[in-house]
Design goal:
Blueprint: H1 5-10, H2 16-32, E1 61-66, E2 71-75, E3 80-83, E4 91-92, E5 101-106, E6 112-116, E7 120-124, E8 132-135, H3 137-149, H4 157-171, E9 181-184, E10 191-194, E11 200-203, E12 211-212, E13 225-231, E14 234-239, E15 243-247, E16 254-258, E17 265-271, E18 274-279, E19 284-287, E20 295-296, E21 305-310, E22 316-320, E23 325-328, E24 335-337, E25 346-353, E26 356-361, E27 364-369
Antiparallel strand pairs: 1-2, 2-3, 3-4, 5-6, 6-7, 7-8, 9-10, 10-11, 11-12, 13-14, 14-15, 15-16, 17-18, 18-19, 19-20, 21-22, 22-23, 23-24, 25-26, 26-27
Length: 371
């Protein structure tokens, strides 16, 4: 990390991607410190269990995962819902916070993590039925400060201070911060959580403790990190300026690669030998060499592509901000538009069967055929 890091980060030109993420930042602040009426005792959403809701499948949801045994979707006000019948019926989970979630990931059919506003990370060991909190923004600044000032980073003292100063200045860890993506290995031990302004945390004990990992990623400019996923044997992070970061499986360092696009990328999906990343203004890029090089994929999207998923048959599904949905071939070279029975402001998608997937968004969850 260089001393110019802070100045470089401050001088970044605004872009639609940054404005979108800035909107999430404002939402995060309001979610954690919303209005308090004089006659009401304020309870921090980080301490307030999610309220019991009815018709949970119709409530706003932001992301969805398939554990292999059931579907798990996360949304606003601490809502997490599960389905064991491929989306036909849904049940609400017990959640200790009432913040808005942005992402969910399962390492196996029992262990999962969800992340979101208030820099919250929650964990389940029973397939999504009950959740416990592992971290929130009130502890985040102390965790980061202690890591760099205790010598745990392995850096010389002056260099550790450079990292810490830049992170505190730009990332501003606290309850107003949030995570946008989370991933854990199949054993449920090694994991990462990513967020705006280079927020990058890691755990080696299943999320019981977390450490900042800015020394393990080539991101001196503290670019926003928007998602993390394992695709085709590669662990990939997406973010600003058309960047993807690929983890070296030996050193565990995340090396930066450029797609040739200067806008924000929102996520990544893929199948064996093929990686797709997608982002603003309908941009989709394809790699067949483990993320070392990228080529643009022609498509019909006219707004940002916000989520993607692989289906068991080898095809992939991508969705846009304007309710456009398309399926790819197994090579990811062709995108075919799909008719949608219930268009909505979609934010997440996951495969269910060879010909069926689930969509989540503003109007809840719906299942859809890929044929």
């Amino acid at each position: 990390m260089r001393a110019k890091w802070k100045a470089t980060a401050r001088s970044r030109i605004s872009s639609p991607g940054r404005r979108l993420i800035s909107g999430l930042m404002l939402s995060a602040t309001l979610a954690v410190s919303g209005p308090v009426h004089a006659d009401e005792a304020f309870i921090d959403p980080l301490d307030l269990p999610a309220a019991t809701m009815t018709a949970v499948e119709t409530k706003p949801l932001r992301a969805i995962a398939n554990t292999g045994k059931q579907l798990v979707a996360v949304g606003e006000n601490g809502l997490i819902v599960t389905s064991s019948d491929q989306g036909a019926s849904w049940s609400q989970a017990s959640v200790p916070v009432s913040i808005d979630f942005n992402a969910v990931h399962f390492s196996n059919d029992q262990q999962g993590w969800a992340v979101g506003h208030g820099a919250s990370i929650v964990h389940t060991q029973d397939g999504g039925k009950t959740w416990t909190k592992q971290l929130d923004g009130r502890d985040l600044e102390k965790v980061i400060t202690d890591y760099y000032r205790s010598g745990a980073s392995g850096l010389a003292e002056d260099r550790a201070e450079v990292y810490l100063s830049a992170i505190l200045d730009m990332t501003r860890p606290g309850p107003g911060q949030f995570f946008m993506g989370v991933w854990f290995d199949r054993e449920g031990q090694t994991g990462y959580a990513v967020g705006p302004f280079g927020l990058f945390m890691g755990s080696q004990d299943g999320g019981r403790s977390w450490q900042p990992l800015n020394t393990q990623i080539a991101n001196d400019d503290l670019l926003h990190l928007t998602a993390i996923a394992e695709v085709s044997g590669q662990l990939v992070i997406t973010g600003e300026r058309g960047h993807v970061w690929i983890r070296d499986n030996s050193s565990k360092f995340f090396n930066a690669q450029q797609t040739g696009y200067n806008g924000t990328l929102f996520g990544v999906t893929g199948q064996a030998g093929v990686i797709l990343t997608y982002g603003l203004r309908g941009h989709v890029f394809r790699s067949t060499d483990a993320g070392l090089s990228w080529a643009s994929v022609k498509n019909h999207f006219n707004t940002g592509v916000v989520a993607g998923a692989a289906l068991p048959n080898g095809s992939m599904v991508l969705i846009s901000q304007s309710a456009q949905v398309a399926a790819t071939d197994a090579q990811g070279t062709q995108l075919t538009p799909l008719p949608i029975s219930k268009p909505s402001l979609f934010t997440g998608v996951v495969g269910i069967t060879d010909s069926q997937f689930a969509l989540v968004g503003l109007n809840g969850v719906t299942t859809q055929s890929s044929r």
